Structure formats: structure tokens, C-alpha cells
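Exercise 7b. C-alpha cells:
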């Protein structure tokens, strides 16, 4: 079995040589490994595409959701399986796939799965005119938080997202949103919308708590117009997924969703900027093969 191991050495505040050595060792015990060090996003994307075009059986990526997103673009609807070894800040795709969040433990689990031939297929979301996503596509308040968190260099980890939330609350306001699915249309003033292939974004926040990446459907969470005080009251329940019980929150499930409205919102998916609304998103069942 041929495996390309793509490493972002700056992930998690820089990976130690000891950790990298252990990861490589576990994989080399079960397959032929070619290691590629990603120096930037462009290089990582090109290395992922080359691995797939060269017919690698497995593309294993070490890093956070950024490098995982690039790998998804390459592996989607291909014969190359994706293996995740999380070492980033959020690691939301790893959470969705129940991968151990410790890099060495994840490498050990990947090696066991490769030896046993354990692979499965999961769904992906696809935004027309943009890319694939494996976790959540969001727009509105949460995409502004995402953009701010991406610009910040301090603090590290989950606290960066929490600080970004507090700063963006100052400008909280609702905008017109139109959500079309095969079941109908809703129009309302909303503060955010999230479309989930899996449950979490923002480092483990289950914004679409019922999302299943293997059910052939996308889950939609819409937060309507609320005061800043009410929104602050909703925020603590995001961590438990109980925000969906709030009367201002609407949830839907669909195969295809069109998001529109006079809002000018920029959508983010897997934490990366995509395109401005209006945007059509579809579920692609079984589009990605994953190890484990």
C-alpha cells in the first residue's frame, strides 16, 4: 500500500521532531510512506493533488482543519483515501470522524486501520462555484467570527475563537435571509446560518448537533433576529448543542440548499472563505473515502 504523508510542521504551535518521528514510524510499519513537508497552503494543495493523480492509496495529513480542507479537495470522488492525524487548533473534521485528537495516538489508530483494511465512505458538501467541505459551511455572525479568528495570532487554541466572538458581538445585527430546500422556502431576518455535513465548527462547537456525515443529508441551523442580550444567552448552550431548543433557532435537513437574501454575507466552509451569498449547496453522498 502506498501512502503519502503530508505534514504541516507549524501546526499546533510547531510539531516536535519526536512527534513527527513517531507518526512516520507507525505508518512505515504497515505501508510504503513518502513524506512531504508543506511550506505553505499552495504547496500543500499541490502536494495533495499530486498524491491523488499519482494514484496513492492513502493521503495522510498531519495538521489542522486547514490542511484537512485542502486534502478533501484533492481526495473527493477519487480512489485515494484520506487519513487524518490532527495537530491543529480546531480539528473539527477529526472530531466529526471520532479520530483521537492526540497526533501520535491518531497515527497509531491509522496504522491499525490500514493493517486491517478498514475504510469507509462519508458524505461531503459542495458549494456551487466553490469547493467541497466536510464539516460546516456558515454565513453571517459566525463567518465574521471565523474571519476575525483567522486574522488573530493570539491567544492560541479555543480562546482565540472565544475572543473573536466577544469582539464581533459589538456589531451584531440581523439581515434578510432566504433558505430554499426541497421541502420549501423560509424567509426571515437572521443573525447566522450554518449548513453541517458534520456537527462541529470553531474547535468543537456542535452548531448542527444532529449532523451525520454518512446520512446523505445536510443539516441547517438558522438563528433568527435576537437582541445582543438574547444572543449572549444562547452562546453558552452552543457547547452542548442545546441552542437548537431556543425559539429563535430553526433547524432543517435537506439534500440541496440555496442560501440567499439581501445580506452580502461571505460564506466560510471548513474555516476557509468560499463565496458570497446567494449560494447553492448540495450533499454528495459517499464522496470521500476515509481510513478508519
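Sequence design result:
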Amino acid at each position: 500500500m502506498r501512502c503519502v504523508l503530508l505534514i504541516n510542521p507549524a501546526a499546533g504551535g510547531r510539531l516536535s521532531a519526536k512527534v513527527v518521528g513517531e507518526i512516520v514510524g507507525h505508518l512505515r510499519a504497515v505501508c510504503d510512506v513518502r513524506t512531504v513537508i508543506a511550506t505553505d497552503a499552495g504547496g500543500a494543495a499541490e502536494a495533495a493533488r499530486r498524491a491523488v493523480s499519482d494514484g496513492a492509496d492513502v493521503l495522510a495529513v498531519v495538521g489542522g482543519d486547514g490542511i484537512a480542507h485542502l486534502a478533501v479537495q484533492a481526495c473527493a470522488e477519487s480512489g485515494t483515501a484520506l487519513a487524518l492525524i490532527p495537530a491543529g487548533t480546531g480539528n473539527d473534521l477529526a472530531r466529526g470522524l471520532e479520530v483521537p485528537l492526540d497526533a501520535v495516538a491518531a497515527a497509531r489508530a491509522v496504522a491499525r486501520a490500514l493493517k486491517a483494511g478498514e475504510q469507509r465512505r462519508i458524505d461531503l458538501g459542495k458549494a456551487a462555484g466553490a469547493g467541497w467541505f466536510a464539516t460546516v459551511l456558515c454565513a453571517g455572525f459566525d463567518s465574521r467570527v471565523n474571519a476575525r479568528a483567522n486574522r488573530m495570532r493570539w491567544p492560541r487554541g479555543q480562546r482565540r475563537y472565544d475572543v473573536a466572538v466577544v469582539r464581533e458581538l459589538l456589531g451584531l445585527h440581523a439581515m434578510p435571509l432566504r433558505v430554499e430546500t426541497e421541502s420549501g422556502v423560509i424567509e426571515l431576518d437572521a443573525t447566522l446560518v450554518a449548513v453541517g455535513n458534520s456537527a462541529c465548527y470553531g474547535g468543537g462547537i456542535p452548531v448542527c448537533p444532529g449532523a451525520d456525515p454518512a446520512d446523505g443529508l445536510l443539516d441547517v441551523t438558522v438563528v433568527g433576529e435576537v437582541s445582543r442580550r438574547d444572543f449572549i444567552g444562547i452562546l453558552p448552550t452552543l457547547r452542548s448543542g442545546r441552542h437548537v431548543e431556543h425559539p429563535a433557532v430553526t433547524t432543517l435537513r435537506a439534500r440541496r440548499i440555496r442560501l440567499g437574501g439581501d445580506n452580502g454575507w461571505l460564506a466560510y466552509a471548513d474555516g476557509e472563505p468560499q463565496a458570497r451569498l446567494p449560494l447553492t449547496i448540495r450533499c454528495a453522498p459517499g464522496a470521500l473515502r476515509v481510513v478508519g
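Instructor comment: The mean pLDDT is 92. Residues 132-285 form a domain with the Tumour Suppressor Smad4 fold (CATH 2.60.200.40).
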